[in-house]
Amino acid sequence: MKFGHVDHLNDVNFNLPPIDNKTKSFISPFKIKQLPSFYFGAPGWSDIKFKGLIYPPKTPSKKFLNAYSQQFNSIEVNATRYGTPKINVLDNWMSQVEDSFKFSMKLPQVITHRKDINDKESRNRTDQFLSSVFHLGDYSGICFAVMANYFKSNQFSELESFLSFWPNDVPLAVELRHESWFQESVFNNVQELFLKYNTIPVITDTPGRRDVMHLKLTNNQIFIRYVGDFSHPSDLLRTKLWVSKIEELYDLGVNKIWFYVHQPGENRERILNFFNNMIPQINGVLNTKIPLLKNYQT
Hints:
The protein is α/β, with parallel strands linked by helices. The chain is built from nine helices and eight strands. The chain has a six-stranded parallel sheet with strand order 1-8-7-6-5-4, covered by helices on one side.
């Protein structure tokens, strides 16, 4: 993910915003005494650099997904931006993972990047995509729509029409990118809209666009897309800040956390170090028992 990428991180303020009272009122009805679900993963399983580090050294490419699922419990499937996967592809995916594994599929760009996101073609493509989601069944995580950078807040009514077409009982997260959405008065209306349609607002933590780093939730789920270098000292601070915020949100009512990381450069294999730093902290504050990722290089 290159959105919000910067070359120099030292001057970025990575503090997370406070949780406002409106958000607290939206999530407080979900407050229950049970362990949360923490779903985490990388933006893909096919990276050859994972071999011999995150995957066993002799893992063949056709077994990469299986090896991935031995380390992570979820995957953000960015490849579906190019189109809806066929049923035989989905069957192959499901055959390689445990029953508890989750695929969070990105809506194809032919839906989200249209001139009219609500035209007949968009509806047809959405129905096709939903057929794949239904086929995944319990393997489906959170579908997420990344709206085009040029999709602006003056298209609010188009966004509402888009959300009204989506089935209310199928979890959907939406990422907005254009600056116009993040004026406080506008985004307050977005939060109300998402609440109406049971939509999850994507929280994008990327260094160069701190305006999109909000905490205006609508239900018991939080969907975080984290952009980090995994080698800069700021990642240690940012991880600590997120663990603390997740603990606070859990106490308020959030019990499903989706945390996906992105590396804008060529060093995605550093994801192992990132999560092996984060997982013990998550286990400590949420009383979960997530195992560390195995390092096959050692």
